[in-house]
Please model this.
Amino acid sequence: VTTVCLPDDRWRQLLVELPVGVTAVTWDGTGAAPDGLRDVEFLVPPYGSGAFDATQLAGMPKLQVIQLLSAGAEPWLSVRPPGVTLCNARGVHGASTAELAVAGMSSVLRELPAMYAAQREGRWAPRDTDALVEKRVLVLGAGDIGSRIATAVVAFGAQATTVARTARDGVHSMTELPALLPEHDVVAVAVPHTDETHHLVDAAFLAALPDGALVVNVARGAIVDTAALLAELTAGRLHAFLDVTDPEPLPPDHPLWDAPNLLLTPHVGGGTREWQRRGHQLVRDQLVRHVRGDALQNVVAR
Ligand SMILES: NC(=O)c1ccc[n+]([C@@H]2O[C@H](COP(=O)([O-])OP(=O)(O)OC[C@H]3O[C@@H](n4cnc5c(N)ncnc54)[C@H](OP(=O)(O)O)[C@@H]3O)[C@@H](O)[C@H]2O)c1
Model:
């Protein structure tokens, strides 16, 4: 018998299609440990819960697999017990997150926030704005989200340049980044947050961008040095669209709330009404693989 730990009772529905012999407990990591937790082999933590700590994981001595519901897995790498396979949810949130990146980019360029303010005041105030057409867009990341952003902006007449960890056909390496920054009007960040990408977008990175450039971050807040970005926004030199911030949630007195030239959304890239259907499908498929002894997909660490 394989015991799976699911975030809550709604997730039990998926078990109807699982092979005989799988049993479930539900626990979101808070409150008393449920009966059966010590038998758990396969853990599905709640979406956006943050990594469990060593004490929470110590309650599952038979654990073999941690299947996340997010694409970002970095906080789990250091707490993953030895021998436990860590899988992310690459593909579950990618399309909607790329869509939000392009929506935010377009909203800033077409000045939708100012137009909405005029609408609320009953003012008909037409004017020419920027747009994606003919913009040079630099996409950091050539994975699920980055490649979708690149495809989408090209459809609107922009030029897309992609940078990732490994150079390949149509993808530049990170060593080329300093030379590419001054040549682009928009930078979209779609890489994981790791030691290597922490504060990748720092004061020097931002200073290399041309005046009026737009910085878009839908990945993780700490890839951007918030203080350095705030300085550029306040100086009126750069614009930004952020779906993710450092810290999260953004405290009520944080200076980003009042920063000029900034459009902000509260980490909702993956938060669509129907992502759970894709999440269920992923968990179900991964459980079937686990029970059959087949290779798991989306393995981040093993
Ligand atoms: N806002 C939201 O709600 C939301 C939703 C989903 C995901 N995210 C975030 O977005 C991130 C990307 O998601 P994804 O699904 O596109 O991931 P992905 O498919 O795994 O792609 C990640 C890309 O980042 C590149 N990369 C990794 N480390 C790098 C480094 N040190 N320097 C440069 N490039 C590096 C990879 O390069 P290679 O191709 O060369 O390996 C790859 O192209 C996630 O890690 C997550 O943090 C946010």
